[in-house]
Design brief:
The structure holds three protein chains of three kinds. Chain A is α/β, with parallel strands linked by helices. Chain A is 23% helix and 35% strand. In chain A, the strands form three sheets. In chain A, strands 5, 6, 8, 9, 11, 12, 14, 16, 17, 19, 21 and 23 form a twelve-stranded mixed β-sheet that branches. In chain A, strands 4-3-7-10-13-15-18-20-22-24 form a ten-stranded mixed β-sheet. Mean pLDDT of chain A is 80; it is low at 1-13, 89-96 and 110-122. Chain C has two domains: 30-358, no CATH class; 361-394, no CATH class. In chain C, 14% of the residues lie in helices and 44% in strands. Classes of the chains: A alpha/beta, B alpha/beta, C mainly beta. β23 (399-408) of chain A pairs antiparallel with β19 (334-343) of chain C.
């Protein structure tokens, strides 16, 4: 790649940067017990839920904001954030007519089908705008199989026993600063329960969007796969283009019982900030899955192209014997984005297996770090891990970093870790040029090939979307 | 007839070292030119300069293709204008299937010419037909480009791509190197099938044997960066019999 | 202000991890060691608490053990030898013609996250009982290896020895140095060293550090090397026993064409611990490094390998490779590996690999089918695994 091409870095356009003019209900910014009372009250929550939140809030007050190693940003002022924003007209489940038409347009623009007639076959969608779940589709078809797929708010009301049993069981309230904050103020999110032996008949999907100004989004997702069940879940995210930074601090908990499998895919495209590094979403997320039962399996797949700062480690605790954890990740950073992402695989049960495939692509002045922990506890006999962490560099202003921790306290375990860092070879680019592709197309093609092993793990419809997203994310990075 | 390619007094080199020391060559549509020469004579440099490899600098002279200045164009613009180079060492691109690569390439070239992308079924038909031309198994289409291909398979893949892209000017850089006799025959048959009155080929080779299969109209001898002798196909046989040294001994090269 | 204006630390190494983050969240934040005055051994130990670079070892008990340990002060009669330097309890007793005992030496520039910032480096730099400098003159190829015996003798009471060694190969010179650590006696002893190596242009240094320590002796040592244009440095960390060995190695490739080859072998038994931390710092374009550390862990021994490859923003055309391979052969043996790449330049080829495992059952079966017993087969494969590192020794 010639130096001029790289020097001629042009910022890319963010396709989802529009702001929707939706009639919204907001509360004053700032966080206090009153705000938590307000949120809980607004959502008509039972007393135990309010107490849980208040306890989390007290814990949070005692915690210090983490000082993260490889990302840099000015301190977040938690009193400047609005903790509740909701569209005023809350649609009921069976009627789209009542929904603010502007809101429907918003989701249409995003390519998210709310209208069941038009939507992709076999995908049930829960759309979350700012804080609340707007509509959950396909509930009836799912209900026939006994699958519960609803907003978290509804689940708290309709399935309190399940929520009480599992909420906070994988990510304890005190796990970290942002998990505690989320526990105190989470507004909505998705809840999934797949009963014993049921193979969920369709892909479940949640679409998150931050719309209101100065709001934080604190969604909470809980997925439980009971014995022998299977579910595939996809999460997508966008946010409007704004000059100031927005905070997104979600918590996702997965529980897989014996012989159950959960496949969780994320296509994250929050607004990354403009080409000069102004604005963008801070994406501080705690995601963890527990392979509770024997032969259970949890697989995380993520395509991360958005956010000004991403800090997340979708993890798996391999407690059940012969359980399997997987992490497939593509993280693209351009302009001034910073991503610090990776996974933790904690092997507790015997004969457990984990596999990590991470592909980082850095362009512009961005910083892309892989941080991972693979730990074998002393009882995890005959367990194995395989990790492959590759970094691709585009331009000489960016950085790529790899920080794997490999801890083995059991001599029957096997670890294989490999990592490489390189740039796209001049000879490969020239070859593509000679076949008529300009450098930008060539880079998109090469990057997609590079990320293929991860993209292959996405459900088909989303793999196509993800490919397009990768190409868009790198537009302008090569001249 | 209007010449397709006119190379006029081309001097070029790499890292400050002059390799091509004034080359002139005219190629008309329908012609096959062979350029032969010993190692280090500048054969690959000539191919690289024609396809636009940025490490090579042109010192002076000109290259006119279809009446336009070829040296001004970026590599992809040359490709879009119909210049194709079959590489001596084709690269591997992990994760990018051969089919996907060829489709992207073909459609990029078509787009540059204001043509619509080839519709999927027409594309598949064309691919099937052209693969048969070089006896490449369809399973290669799904495999990552050139990854794990043998030397012969890579060369056949280059000719397959040439068949797909239908270039006006094809430069074959040592396409015969590393091929056994069967592969050589397959590659040559593929190339011959692509000869038309409207396109031209420049075949760069060290050995005469390829020219038994691809019969050239003109044979040039490149030594020390200059074309020292041109003749018909019999010149190639003479070179095969006598080697290159006699040209030096004869005082043709100073 | 945008987040990006805070991106001021570009190029600074960072080494905090999950646990360090947690420590901070829990409010156990620790300032960088450079800000802490380190006047005593106990100060140095305290500076390791909750420190990311010391996360797998707890040195707290050393404060009680060595809090009032004796330091030898008597300047011994200086003997001379052709090839052997002898340092006992931190005092030089014998030197070679190319060596001098210095009264002081230049300060160590502290680069965070490397051996130069270790609290023990700070301590030894200030408190070394002797400084021995070996200087190989320009264009001299020293045929005979130099042996530096660092002996700690605890026959009368608990001792700390703190030694500073400087090895300088002037332009075009070449030398082989074996730094051997051993000891005797029935009292607990601590052997602290700081070794600096300067590899000037076109010179070659082969430096092997051997630690084979008795039960009562621990070692904590730092090695800091500067490699200049077209200079070549080979290092070998041979950890063949000792209750606790800590090696911090920091190699700076400071001019183009510099090369570093880092080798390590740990063979541990019982409750022995070997803690190897390496950083290769590519500061300029066109340097090369290649690292291979192997470990064989029997019984309840523990190996730690923390290897960092750092490629600074201008260091284009860097090639850097790193590999760590561990065999866990004991029921309670442990290995903690942290191979890291920090890359700030794009035109580079860098890779690391780490494996942890057991002997290949296929290979064992093959050998047994040829008549070897299980024990013989295992021993043969372990030897073969280790032999590669012995073969690399100068």
């Amino acid at each position: 790649m010639s130096q001029e091409l790289i020097d001629d870095v042009v910022g890319r356009e963010y396709e989802y940067g529009f702001v929707s003019d939706i009639d919204q209900e907001l509360i004053a910014k700032g966080l206090s017990p009153d705000v938590i009372h307000f949120i809980s009250n607004k959502k008509e929550e039972p007393e135990w839920m309010l107490e849980w939140r208040l306890k989390a809030y007290e814990q949070w007050l005692r915690m210090k904001h983490p000082h993260w190693s490889n990302v840099h940003f000015p301190p977040v002022d938690f009193q400047e954030i609005i903790y509740w924003a909701a569209p005023k007209k809350k649609p009921t489940l069976n009627s789209l007519d009542e929904v603010d038409p502007e809101l429907l347009n918003t989701f249409k623009k995003l390519g998210i089908p709310l209208d069941e007639q038009k939507q992709l076959a076999g995908v049930a969608v829960d759309a979350v705008l700012d804080s609340v779940s707007v509509k959950t589709t396909f509930q009836k078809a799912l209900a026939e199989k006994g699958v519960i797929f609803s907003s978290m708010s509804d689940a708290i009301k309709n399935h309190p026993d399940l929520v009480r049993k599992y909420l906070g069981s994988v990510v304890p309230v005190t796990d970290n600063f942002y998990a505690a904050l989320n526990s105190a103020v989470f507004s909505d999110g998705s809840f999934v329960y797949v009963p014993k032996g049921v193979r969920c008949p369709m892909e479940l999907s949640t679409y998150f969007r931050i719309n209101a100004k100065n709001t934080g989004q604190f969604e909470r997702t809980l997925i439980i796969a009971d014995e022998g069940s299977y579910v595939s879940y996809l999460e997508g995210c966008t946010a409007p283009q704004r000059d100031e930074n927005q905070l997104h601090a979600a918590v996702v908990e997965l529980v897989a019982h014996a012989h159950a499998e959960i496949k969780y895919s994320t296509v994250q495209n929050w607004f990354p900030g403009d080409k000069d590094g102004n604005g963008g979403v801070y994406n501080f997320v705690t995601k963890r899955g527990l392979c509770e039962g024997a032969k259970s399996k949890i697989s995380w797949t993520q395509v991360e192209t958005g956010s000004a700062i991403t800090w997340k480690y979708p993890s798996v605790v391999l407690k059940g014997d012969e359980s399997v954890g997987e992490f497939y990740s593509v993280a693209v950073t351009a302009n001034y984005q910073q991503a610090d992402t990776g996974t933790k695989m904690t092997h507790i049960g015997k004969n457990t297996r984990s596999r990590i495939v991470s592909k980082g692509i850095s362009a512009g002045k961005s910083q892309n770090s892989y941080r991972g922990l693979v730990r074998f506890n002393s009882k995890a006999d005959n367990s194995r891990n395989y990790s492959q962490c590759d970094s691709l560099l585009i331009g000489d202003q960016c950085g790529a970093h790899t920080f794997p921790y490999l801890e083995t306290a059991n001599p029957t375990c096997t670890v294989e870790h490999e990592a490489t860092t390189s740039k796209i070879g001049e000879d490969i680019l020239f070859y593509c040029n000679q076949r008529g592709l300009d450098t930008e197309k060539a880079v998109a093609l090469i990057v997609n090939g590079y990320a293929k092993e991860v993209l292959n793990n996405l459900p088909m419809e989303f793999a196509v979307e993800a490919q397009k997203l990768l190409a868009i994310s790198l537009e302008g990075s090569v001249g | 007839m209007k010449p397709l390619l006119i190379i006029d007094q081309l001097r070029a080199g790499i890292e400050g070292r002059e390799i091509l020391k004034g080359i002139s060559l005219t190629v008309n549509p329908g012609e096959v030119h062979a350029i032969m020469g010993p190692n280090g004579s500048g054969k690959s440099t000539l191919a690289s300069v024609l396809s636009g490899r940025s490490e090579y600098e042109v010192i002076s002279g000109s290259v006119t293709y279809n009446g336009e200045d070829l040296l001004e164009k970026a590599p992809e613009e040359r490709a879009q204008a119909g210049v194709f180079q079959a590489f001596q060492y084709p690269v591997e691109i992990p994760g990018v299937s051969t089919a996907n690569f060829v489709r992207t390439s073909l459609n990029a070239i078509r787009a540059a010419r204001g043509e619509e992308p080839l519709d999927p079924s027409a594309f598949l038909m064309r691919m099937k037909e052209r693969m048969a031309l070089v006896e490449l198994d369809p399973s290669f289409l799904q495999r990552s480009l050139n990854e794990g291909f043998s030397g012969g398979e890579k060369k056949r893949n280059e000719i397959f791509q040439m068949a797909m892209l239908e270039p006006t000017l094809a430069i074959l850089d040592e396409t015969d190197s590393g091929l056994d006799i069967d592969a050589l025959r397959i590659v040559a048959n593929g190339v011959n099938a692509l000869r038309t009155p409207n396109n031209a080929m420049v075949v760069i080779t060290h050995y005469q044997r390829l020219l038994n299969y691809i019969v050239p109209d003109v044979v040039h001898v490149l030594m020390d960066g200059q074309l020292v002798l041109s003749g018909n196909k019999d010149l190639a046989l003479e070179l095969e019999a006598k080697g290159y040294d006699w040209l030096r001994n004869d005082g043709v090269v100073a | 202000m945008s987040a990006q204006e805070h991106l001021v630390q570009q190029g600074q190494p960072v080494q905090q991890g999950h646990e360090a983050q947690q420590a901070r969240e829990e409010g156990h934040e620790h300032p960088a060691t450079a800000d802490v005055g380190i006047a005593t051994f106990s100060d140095a130990v305290k500076a390791t608490f909750r420190h990311e670079e010391w996360k797998y070892t707890n040195l707290a008990s050393l404060i009680t053990t060595f809090g009032d340990a004796e330091r030898a002060t008597k300047s011994a009669e200086l003997a001379s030898s052709d090839h052997r330097i002898l340092i006992v309890n931190g005092i030089a007793e014998q030197i070679i013609p190319e060596a001098t005992v210095l009264a002081s030496a230049p300060a160590i520039e502290s680069v965070p996250g490397t051996a130069s910032a270790s609290p023990f480096t700070t301590y030894v730099a200030a408190e070394a009982q002797c400084i021995v400098e070996v200087r190989i003159p320009k264009n001299t190829q020293r045929e005979q290896p130099i042996v530096i015996d660092v002996v700690t003798n605890g026959s009368t009471r608990t001792m700390i020895g703190a030694t500073r060694i400087r090895i300088i190969a002037e332009e075009g010179a070449s030398v082989v140095v074996h730094e051997k650590h051993h000891g005797s006696g029935s009292h607990e002893c601590m052997d602290l060293t700081l070794t600096e190596i300067v590899v000037h242009a076109n010179s070659t240094v082969q430096y092997a550090k051997h630690t084979q320590l008795p039960e009562m002796l621990r070692h904590i040592g730092s090695t800091i090397a500067h490699v200049h244009a077209h200079g070549t440095l080979h290092t070998h960390a041979m950890c063949l026993g000792g209750p606790y060995v800590r090696n911090d190695l920091y190699i700076r490739l400071e001019e183009s064409g510099a090369e570093a080859y880092l080798n390590g072998l740990s063979v541990l038994r019982g409750h022995e611990v070997a803690d190897n931390h390496t950083t290769v710092d590519h500061l300029v374009p066109r340097c090369h490094s290649d690292e291979l550390y192997k470990g064989i862990y029997y019984d309840a021994s523990m190996g730690i390998f923390n290897g960092k490859v750092l490629v600074r923003p201008d260091a284009q055309k860097t090639t850097a490779y790193q590999s760590s391979r561990s065999l866990l052969l004991g029921d309670r043996a442990q290995i903690n590996a942290k191979p890291q790449l920090e890359i700030w330049a794009d035109d580079v080829k860098c890779s690391h690999g780490a494996t942890t495992g057991q002997l290949d059952n296929e290979a064992i079966f093959y050998l047994r089918s040829r008549g070897l017993t299980l024990e013989q087969a295992r021993a043969l494969l372990v030897d073969a695994f280790a032999q590669e590192m012995y073969d690399r020794l100068p």
